Structure formats: C-alpha cells, structure tokens
Amino acid sequence: MARQERAVQTRIAILEAAAAAFGERGYDATPVTEVYERAGVTKGALYFHFGSKEDLARAILDQAVTTEGVAPHELRLQELADILLLMAYRLPREPVLNAALRLSVDLPSQQLFGTRWPDWSDLLTRLLAEARERGEVHPYVDEAETARILVGAWTGVRLVTAGLPGDFDLVREVVALLRLIVPSLAVPTVLARLDISAERAATLYAEMTAKEGEDRGE
After folding, report:
1. Engineering a disulfide at 218: which of 19, 50, 177, 213 sits with its beta carbon 3.0 to 4.6 angstroms away?
2. 66 located within any domain
3. How many domains does the chain have?
4. Which CA distances in Å does 80 have to 75, 179, 193?
5. Which residues, in sequence order, are bridge partners of residue 137?
6. Longest Cα pair distance anywhere in the chain, in angstroms?
7. Which stretches hold the DNA-binding feature (predicted)?
8. ∠ at Cα 198 (195, 201), nearest 5°?
C-alpha cells in the first residue's frame, strides 16, 4: 500500500510540475527535462507515469472540466453560478487548472489537443435546460447560446485582466460578469434568491478543501 501511495504522489508531483511549467512558458517552450527536474523525479519515473509530453498535456486537460466543490442546489442557476465562481477562485491557486486554460487558448496546443470548451458548454447547457424546466429562466433564453456566451465571457475576463496593468481579482471580476448577465436570464423570484458574491466563492473553496482534508484523514 505504501508503494502504491508513493506512486500516486509521484504522478501528482509530475503533473503539477508540468502544469506549472506549461502555465508559465507554454507547451512548446517547455522541455521534458524541466518537468522532471521541477518534480524532483528521474526521467524514467516521468516516462513510467506518462508516455510523452503530449500525454502530460492531455492529462492536464482531462482535469479542466470539474464541478468538484459544488453541491447540488434547489436552484440550478445557483449551481451554475457556483461552478463559475469556484472555478474563478481555484484557477489562480491550482496550477493544473491554470495550465489547462493556457493549453486551451494557445493555438499550437489547440491544434494538437483541441480544447475543453465544448465540454464546458455542454455542462452549462444542461444546467440551463434544467433551470428552464424548473421555471427559473425566462422563456426566451436559448440554453446552448447562453452557455457558449458564458464560457467565452468567463474566459475573456481571465485573459484580459491577466494582460492589463494592475492587480485584478478574478473572483470579483467574474462576480461583476455574472451580475451583468444573470438578471437577463433569471425570473425575478429566482434572481432575488441567488447568491452571486466573492464571499460565496471563498466559502465554497474552504468547504471543498476541508472535505479533501477529511478524505485524506487530516
């Protein structure tokens, strides 16, 4: 069991090292040597867990679409907002998510691996469809179109603020984005019940990390 646990930890260390390097330098500019040196493992250990640099990139992208930390809610629009808020809180703190975004927006990486935008759009489309069935959104809302706009706008906020002078908090920027868009989607009785705030994002993250600690027996 101890050997298996070490193998798991080695794999995680390699993945996080690759994510940090890809996030900083991009996929093409990152040599494999930098990854295993950052991870503190041998070249053989890296190739035992990942057959190639391409496999590393795909493993990172496989973790790009996640609802971890978001519990089911009676309002599907609250679930949707929670996913986008928590992702905004997690992305600057988790190299794997940050690298997944960079892999998705860098053109050479797109050509090699594609993106996870369709998966994100499908996820939000399903939530919006359920929200429609529950009477949470206006009849004129097109679920697929709205999902695409949300994914594009969220990504745009991240990319633009990262390139602007000054220090922008991604969570607060996403809160501002949602407060502009959600009132055009939600019926008034539902809108009044939604919590779209930076404080909610922080709470969701704290609850998620606490649960992860409990799962590890900490």
Report:
1. 213
2. no
3. 2
4. 9, 13, 14
5. 186
6. 59
7. 31-50
8. 80
